[in-house]
Design a protein that fits this description.
The complex is a heterodimer of chains A (about 750) and B (about 270).
Chain A: H1 20-26, H2 33-55, H3 66-77, H4 98-109, H5 113-132, H6 135-145, E1 156-159, E2 177-182, E3 190-196, E4 200-201, E5 208-215, E6 223-229, E7 234-237, E8 252-253, E9 256-262, E10 270-273, E11 276-279, H7 283-308, H8 310-319, H9 332-336, H10 342-385, H11 392-399, H12 402-414, H13 421-429, H14 431-466, H15 481-491, H16 498-508, H17 512-531, H18 537-556, H19 571-602, H20 609-641, E12 655-657, H21 658-667, H22 671-678, E13 680-682, H23 702-714, H24 718-731
Parallel strand pairs in A: 1-5, 2-5, 12-13
Antiparallel strand pairs in A: 2-3, 3-9, 4-8, 5-6, 7-9, 10-11
Helix pairs in contact in A: 2-3, 2-4, 4-5, 4-7, 4-10, 5-6, 5-7, 7-10, 7-14, 7-15, 8-10, 10-14, 10-19, 10-20, 10-24, 12-13, 12-14, 12-17, 14-15, 14-16, 14-19, 16-19, 17-18, 18-19, 18-20, 18-23, 19-20, 20-23, 20-24
Chain B: E1 5-9, E2 12-14, E3 22-25, E4 28-31, E5 39-41, H1 43-58, E6 63-70, H2 72-82, E7 89-94, H3 103-115, E8 125-130, H4 141-148, E9 154-163, E10 169-175, E11 179-185, E12 190-194, H5 206-222, E13 224-225, H6 255-267
Parallel strand pairs in B: 1-6, 1-8, 6-7, 7-13, 8-12, 9-12
Antiparallel strand pairs in B: 2-5, 3-4, 9-10, 10-11
Helix pairs in contact in B: 2-5, 3-4
Classes of the chains: A alpha/beta (about 750), B alpha/beta (about 270).
Bound molecules: flavin-adenine dinucleotide (FAD).
């Protein structure tokens, strides 16, 4: 029989911080030299110019200063601006670019989130054009926005959010208006666009804007996005700078537009139907296509912050007592400083583990979108070729593919030898079936990254800051940790705050096409646990089963008043379940990333492979334990929390009368003595134990109890993993100084 | 103008921000965790490479080769940034780049590799390298490579090289007292071991990198393994200097201030 070694405490562990070689494997770009180079070109800008600007107090003003503006030229030179474009438009990366964009943002956010936002917002402005624009629009704006293609680089802003009481979380109802200003026979119609924006990034300097508006003219149908130029006739008022407390290296203002533009600026073009202009895409379709990609990048910005905290915290802790006369080199107090205290180490392990999970989830999702993009665009092509409009007709066509998609997933899960391979191959080749399968994942992964990485990430940054003591709340804190903490809160807010992501998840995570894949993952994790037992894969699989059981329960049960538990409006149920799912996903991708490292190590491509593998496995185990705990807490409160607590009214089946027990005592000696411990006893005078009521019985939720118990048991070893990871933090070599200024 | 064939010898050294702790193991001396520490292009070799690239752009049809002896996987990582800074062709030799390897055996390996470069015209050859190295500072390797290749016009600690229209080269070498020795040589071939030169480090440009990678990747794949002669030199002990190391990252400090601070620090 094959045996697998379980972790012992003397095995090799971390000796140095993981370098680029390790990261490339964990995050899946070891074979992508273009992307590796991008990382190397962005890093010096981040750790050089950006860091110096922050250290010099560049964040102290809301205004768009020359020094901030200089960053744009550096982004251009480092290839960040061109990153978005395909080679035909002056870019240098072939194919989908989600992972590349994510890494560029990660590198910048490692030092300053505002710098990352500044570079991203230009991509966000171009994204509607890139995703849904006409060929002409793509050619025009890509060539103007990509350095080296024209004399001046045109900068863009994306304008969706409107002043109160209009667009915010809810993006459906727009107050921005578009109507036909003039329409000469045989000429392009001219449109008047009135739009006010709130909190619009890049507006301090943008030359063009992609704006969401709604028609108030019967000759123009519905909503759309339009491109506005600063040179268009009318008002292009940038508005005053937002007094934000975060991301000050990006420009944010509340602009006002009242401009006349040709109808050819409608993004994606339009069709004339009975004398009415019908935009080919409404604003919701465009922003859905845009945000499902760009939100992933935002999630990775917060991941960068968490991981960037590790080195400064270790350095601070270790050197905390050095320099005093009493402590000589070689003494534990000198060498280890605060690392002598277990809590400081354990908390840093939690920060690091969460950072790894966030990065793994984010990068895996970015990579997933790189693979999904062609399928997504293929769907557009199929619809186009078939003359199928987006919207209801499109959904109908897709609905017919749900059966085959489920069948495909069932076959895939069966594994080789047990399934009809020919049918599987047939379904694999069917583009729309594959689209549905992947889309079900995309619709979960994107909001999960945005929600968990930024929301939980902000909490984690607070922990990191607390480990730096008083320094943690000063501007002089190494690694700019307090700035990053605060910045993370914006990442949790813009491009759709947490509520938006939870709302989306609460719909998409109940899709049977997603749940079928989720089920497959549970089995996959058990298999991984078989070969890599120290990663917490089994713990996670058990927690996933608990979540799965709970979801089915919530979908099919009602509360004490008979109201449906799982439904759109009941955010008290749906939102926590969404949160719980995110913990599971993050942990899963963290474990999968270690599997990549193990494969590379087997091929001999990693120095100190065993040490890195052991350490990352311990971190993953810690994180799986944290995730399991969180999921248990949430599921338990949802399963029990909506039932009314039994009272002492004797209707409850869990109460006994003392006199009944006395009668039974003659038949079953000892029952009177045992009963109080298994049920609850009410005396003849109605008195009972001093508590809220008889204890709850578990009838109907035995499945839950069994799974919950299993999860609890599966935490076995997770604290030992934490101890080992903590121990590694005391010996790992760190550089002499941080590679960016303070 | 005559095109040059410039061969730059340069490899990687551990990133200077890292803690460098020499250890004496069964394989001989090395740095603690050397294979895991991030590395950078040896700064002296870097100056040579950037000067070479700049000279090549001024003399059309010139070619630049970077001959690097180091662990292949780490060279590959290094190329992800270096390849973005200058245009060159890579000749990679898979070997240890430890600062403890005998300079003579390194020089011999380099000279052999240079001899084997396809299309190299030795009459146009300018052999570039650093006058020192951040990991060894034997300060002799480039001279020895030159000798092995039969190049006797050698210039050491060079800060400036001017290639004149008549093909001659005017070279400024550092000598004592902060002075330069100015020499003129009739032309290539010559050996130029650079000090810091005059050029700033070029910024990274992934577009340049992508072009370079077309030749660099195959070169890395072709890299031959060379085993440096560890037995030619014996170390009895390796240790860091007794003086305590203090590293600080500072911004906007004048050269005078830096010099004063270092002098004060040395005085103790
Ligand atoms: C610095 C900065 C830069 C920005 N850049 C841009 C930009 O470039 N372009 C752009 O268009 N926008 C931009 N925004 C706007 C940003 O996207 C919005 O602020 C965000 O979408 C939230 O909208 P809101 O502020 O109106 O919040 P609200 O809609 O008022 O929501 C406030 C809170 O109420 C709760 N809530 C609201 N609705 C629901 C619901 N349905 N269910 C449950 N809870 C709910 C949530 O807790 C939510 O966080 C930026 C914002 C900032 C601060």
């Amino acid at each position: 029989m094959e045996t697998v070694e379980h972790a012992t405490d003397t095995r090799p562990s971390l000796t140095t911080l993981p370098g680029d070689d390790i990261r490339q494997i964990l995050w899946g770009f070891a074979d992508r030299f273009d992307i590796q180079m991008l990382v190397q070109s962005v890093r010096p800008v981040a750790r050089g110019q950006v860091a110096r600007l922050v250290a010099d107090g560049g964040r102290h003003t809301h205004d768009w200063t020359d020094a901030k503006n200089d960053l744009l030229a550096s982004f251009d030179a480092a290839g960040v601006t061109a990153l978005f474009a395909d080679p035909e438009y002056g870019g240098f990366i072939e194919g989908p670019k989600n992972l590349a964009l994510a890494l560029a943002a990660f590198e910048l956010a490692w030092v300053d989130g505002g710098a990352a936002t500044c570079s991203l917002a230009g991509h966000l402005a171009l994204a509607p054009i890139h995703e849904k624009g006409t060929e002409e629009q793509k050619r025009t704006y890509m060539s103007r926005a990509i350095p080296g293609q024209s004399e001046e680089v045109a900068r863009g802003a994306f304008c969706l959010t409107e002043p109160l009481p209009f667009v915010g979380v809810d993006t459906r109802v727009l107050s921005g208006r578009v109507r036909i200003e003039g329409w000469d026979e045989g000429e392009e119609p001219m449109l008047r666009v009135e739009k006010r924006g709130r909190f619009i990034t890049n507006m301090g300097f943008a030359n063009f804007v992609t704006a969401a508006v709604e028609s108030d003219d019967e000759r123009l149908k519905g909503t759309c996005m339009v491109i506005l130029e600063e040179s268009d006739p009318g008002t292009f008022d940038r508005g005053s700078a937002t007094h934000k407390l975060v991301h000050q290296l990006s420009s944010t203002t509340d602009p006002i537009f009242n401009l006349v533009v040709p109808a050819s600026r409608i993004i994606g073009g339009y069709t004339l139907k009975d004398g009415v202009i019908v935009p080919n895409y409404n604003h919701s379709q465009i922003i859905e296509a845009v945000f499902r990609r760009t939100r992933v990048t935002v999630g990775l910005m917060t991941a960068a912050k968490m991981l960037s905290a590790v080195e400064p915290v270790i350095r601070y802790q270790r050197s905390r007592f050095r320099g005093g006369a009493a402590d000589a080199p070689g003494s534990p107090r000198y060498d280890l400083g605060l690392q002598q205290k277990e809590d400081t180490l354990h908390r840093l392990v939690d920060v690091w583990a969460a950072g790894e999970a966030a990065a793994a989830l984010g990068f895996a999702t970015a990579k997933f979108f790189d693979e999904f993009d062609p399928i997504d665009h293929r769907r557009d092509d199929i619809f186009g070729e078939g003359g199928i409009p987006h919207g209801r007709a499109g959904l109908k066509v897709l609905a017919q593919k749900r059966g085959p998609a489920l069948e495909y997933l069932r076959l895939r899960a069966l594994g080789p030898g047990k399934r009809d391979e020919a049918r599987l191959a047939e379904l694999e080749k069917d583009d729309l079936t594959q689209f549905l399968v992947q889309d079900a994942l995309a619709l979960v992964l994107c909001p999960a990254v945005k929600l968990w990485n930024t929301g939980h990430g902000t909490n984690v940054m607070r922990e990191a800051v607390s480990l730096m003591g008083g320094y943690g709340i000063t501007e002089d804190c190494p690694g700019f940790l307090p700035q990053k903490w605060m910045d993370a809160q914006l990442e949790a807010t813009y491009e759709g705050p947490e509520a938006v992501q939870r709302r989306q998840l609460s719909l998409t995570m109940t899709n049977e096409l997603f749940l079928a894949q989720f089920q497959e993952w549970i089995l996959e994790l058990r298999r991984i646990a078989g070969t890599m037992p120290g990663t917490g894969a089994c713990t996670l699989a058990s927690a996933m089963e608990l979540w799965q059981w709970t979801l089915q329960y919530l979908l099919t049960h009602t509360d004490a008043d008979g109201a449906t538990l799982y439904r759109d409006q009941r955010q008290g149920v749906t939102f926590p379940m969404a949160d719980a799912l995110c913990w599971l996903l993050a942990s899963r991708y963290q474990i999968l990333s270690i599997r990549e490292l193990q494969t590379a190590a087997t091929n001999g491509a990693v120095a100190n492979a065993e040490g890195f593998l052991n350490f990352f496995a311990d971190l993953a185990h810690v994180q799986a334990g944290n995730a399991a705990g969180e999921v248990s807490r949430i599921c338990t409160s949802l399963v029990y929390g909506y039932n009314r607590h039994p009272s002492w009214d004797l209707q409850g089946s869990c109460c006994h009368h003392t006199e009944d027990l006395d009668t039974l005592e003659s038949i079953m000696p000892g029952i009177a003595a045992c009963a109080p411990s298994v049920g609850d006893v009410v005396d003849a005078d109605g008195s009972h134990a001093p508590k809220a009521g008889p204890c709850v019985r578990f009838t109907g939720v035995e499945g839950f109890v069994a799974r919950r118990n299993k999860v609890d048991g599966c935490l076995t070893g997770s604290r030992l993993a934490k101890d080992r990871a903590a121990q590694a933090l005391t010996t790992v070599m760190i550089p002499e100084a941080l590679d960016y200024p303070m | 103008m005559t095109p040059f064939h410039i061969v730059v010898c340069g490899s990687l050294v551990p990133d200077p921000l890292q803690t460098l702790e020499p250890t004496l193991g069964p394989e001989g001396p090395g740095l603690k965790n050397e294979m895991m520490l991030p590395s950078v292009l040896d700064p002296w070799a870097g100056h040579a490479l950037y000067e070479a690239a700049s000279l090549a752009t001024k003399h059309p049809e010139s070619r630049v080769w970077l001959v690097s002896l180091g662990p292949k996987a780490r060279l590959q990582q290094l190329m992800m940034s270096i390849a973005q800074k200058a245009k060159f062709e890579l000749v990679a030799i898979d070997s240890s780049a430890s600062g403890f390897i005998d300079a003579q055996s390194v020089a011999r390996t380099l000279a052999t590799a240079i001899d084997e470069i396809d299309g190299l015209d030795k009459n146009r050859l300018l052999l570039f390298g650093g006058c020192a190295s951040a990991s060894r500072d034997a300060g002799v390797t480039v001279q020895m490579v030159g000798e092995l290749l039969g190049l006797t016009d050698q210039f050491l600690a060079v800060d400036e090289l001017e290639a004149r229209d008549d093909g001659s080269l005017r070279v400024l070498e550092r000598i004592e007292g902060g002075k330069y020795l100015a020499s003129t040589v009739r032309g290539a071939p010559a050996v130029v071991a650079w000090a810091t030169g005059k050029l700033p480090e070029p910024p990274n440009n992934p577009q340049v990198g992508m072009q370079n990678m077309r030749t660099i990747l195959p070169a890395l794949q072709k890299a031959k393994a060379a085993i440096p002669n560890r037995n030619s030199i014996h170390y009895q002990e390796v240790a860091i200097p007794q003086q305590k190391r203090e590293t600080r990252v500072v911004k906007d400090m004048s050269v005078d201030e830096i010099a004063r601070e270092i002098a004060d620090w040395i005085r103790g």
